[in-house]
Amino acid sequence: MVDLQLFSKERTYLGAITPQDDGKSVSVAGWVYDIRELGKIRFLVLRDTSGDIQVIGLKKETAPEIFDAMGRVSRESVVFIKGIVKKSEKAPGGRELAPETFEVLAVAEHPLPIDVSDFSKTELPKRLDYRFLDLHRKKVQATFKIESTIMQAYHEFMTKEGAIEAQFPSIIGSSSEGGTELFSAQYFEKKAFLSQSCQLYKQMLACSMEKVFALFTVWRAEKHNTVRHLNESRQFDFEMAFADEFVVMDVLARCVQFIVKRVLELHSKDLSELGVTLIVPAVKYLTFAQVAELMQKEGIHMGKDDLSGEAEKKLNDLFPDTIVFVHDWPLSGKPFYIMPKGDGLSRGFDAIYKGMEITSGGQRIHLPELLTERLKVKGLNPADFESYISSFRYGAPPHAGWGMGLERLTMMMLGFSNIREAVLFPRDRDRLTP
Ligand code: ATP
Ligand code: MG
Q1: Which atom of ligand 1 is nearest to the CA of 235?
Q2: Which site among 118, 123, 238, 279 is 20 to 30 Å from 137 CA-CA?
Q3: What pLDDT is attached to residue 156?
Q4: What confidence score (pLDDT) does residue 46 get?
Q5: Which positions of the chain have pLDDT values less than 70?
Q6: Which of 410, 397, 408 is nearest to 247 (CA)?
Q7: 229, 254, 427, 431: which one is catalytic?
Q8: CB 404 near ligand 1, within 6 Å
């Protein structure tokens, strides 16, 4: 039986095996990816999260019980092997492992419910049903390794920027923004809701702590089932006092560039596994009116106060690998809390990256009277927002911020056609498990 404590000290990760290990004995463990039998030779590809190696069994040389076990083990079973690393011209990666011990730690039952080979054609819904097994695949692991770096890079960037990280409540007593449909929940005797954004909280916090950020889970009970929306998603939120929309657009641009740089530094192998070429994006600023004019020239339809999906795609054709900020957005197309700019325009913006919105943001209204007026214009009842309005009555500076979807950003960076590829366990119109 493998001694797990000893193994955790002695373990060699497969991705860390180098020519210096040739001739050495190593302790490795992982999943059996592939098995091939050529008469008196048995090949088995062992994989762990860092890489893989070919294990070779020779009828003449390998201990008979090991040679037998290699013939019986099923694909995706978990094995522990002690063996000698050998240089080999023919082996993928240039070396192979001659086993001296071979222990099956967990048998994978067959048939497997989904194809987990590198060439798997199993459709996404089925893969998601068996996500735990789908996660055996290199491509899927590459995705979530990169997404982990995206989150860490966001933290690193924001911390360097001098922002403090905040946690906000996810159960709320009333709709914070109006508009979006909410999931309701029973909170003892009261009716409560799951938060659709931390908008109001991050504003209240920025009005004292100045620069704040959060990675916040949001729930939206929208019934649509699209490739770009989830009903539960995670948002990078940022809010800053003494700032207008241009100050925070600049923060966002540098933040996304920093994230992309980090991914490039740490994940060249994962990116090539996914077949993705990534470059640090440039930045472009356009007014909504300029975009409307461009789209008219291109013969592409868009709304009076919103871009269309087609227009977002066209912006990417015109400005590839660029974060396109669309600002001076029509006031009618932005939420009540966005600061008006005059002439029917607002201090709100969207950021488009690789043909899709990744962020909305803007300068907020910090003036109680103006906020009351804007709520009424939007058909909302100021009485329902009294505590929010009041938070600006006792010394609230001008402030601005944005929210960027984690899964949306991952989807665009990695070129997925469906956002569900970028969520471990998606929640959508039809899916509540696993
Ligand atoms: P869209 O126009 O794409 O529907 P939105 O304008 O409704 O997005 P916002 O309320 O502005 O979205 O949210 C900020 C960001 O959060 C979006 O730019 C996007 O990156 C992400 N996001 C919004 N809704 C969803 C969703 N349902 N699923 C996943 N990510 C989302
Ligand atoms: Mg938006």
Answers
A1: 16
A2: 279
A3: 98
A4: 98
A5: 175-179
A6: 397
A7: 229
A8: yes
CA 354 – CA 413 distance, rounded (Å): 8
Of 432, 429, 371, 430, nearest in space to 398 by CA: 371
Are residues 100 and 138 both part of a single domain?
Answer: no
CATH of the domain at 91: 2.40.50.140
Q: pTM (2 decimals)?
A: 0.97
In short, whether 374's Cβ falls inside 6 Å of ligand 1 is: no
408 Cα nearest atom in ligand 1:
20
Q: State whether the beta carbon of 360 lies less than 6 angstroms from ligand 1.
A: yes
357 is known as an active-site residue: yes
Are 28 and 154 part of one and the same domain?
no
253 and 143, same structural domain? yes
Q: Are residues 61 and 199 in the same domain?
A: no
The active-site residue, picked from 239, 408, 420, 421, is 408
Q: Are residues 141 and 99 in the same domain?
A: no
- Ligand 1 site, residue 408, Cβ cutoff 6 A: yes
Provide the token pair at 307.
């871009």
Q: Any idea which ligand is nearest the CA of 410?
A: 1
Pair of tokens at residue 111: 């048939």
Place of tokens 């803007």: 362
CA distances from 308 to 175, 223, 292, 357 (A): 27, 19, 11, 10
Neighbour-count burial for 273-301, b at 16+ CB within 10 Å, e otherwise: bbebebeebebebbebeebbebbeeeebe
Does residue 270's CB lie within 6 angstroms of at least one atom of ligand 1?
no
Instruction: Based on the residue annotation, tell me whether 408 is a catalytic residue of this protein.
Output: yes
At 360, which helix (H) or strand (E)? strand 356-363
Domain boundary among 61, 91, 106: 106
C-alpha closest to that of 230 among 422, 433, 434: 422
308 shares its domain with 376: yes
Contact 283, 242 (CB under 8 A): no
- Total structural domains in the chain? 2
Find tokens 């404590």 and name the residue: 5
Range of the domain at 288: 134-422
Q: Quick check: is 115 in a domain?
A: no
Q: Does 228 qualify as catalytic in the annotation?
A: yes
pLDDT in tens, 101-129: 999 999 999 999 999 999 999 999 999 99
What is the rounded distance in angstroms from the CA atom of residue 100 to the CA atom of residue 37?
19
Cβ atoms within 10 Å of 318's Cβ, excluding its own: 15
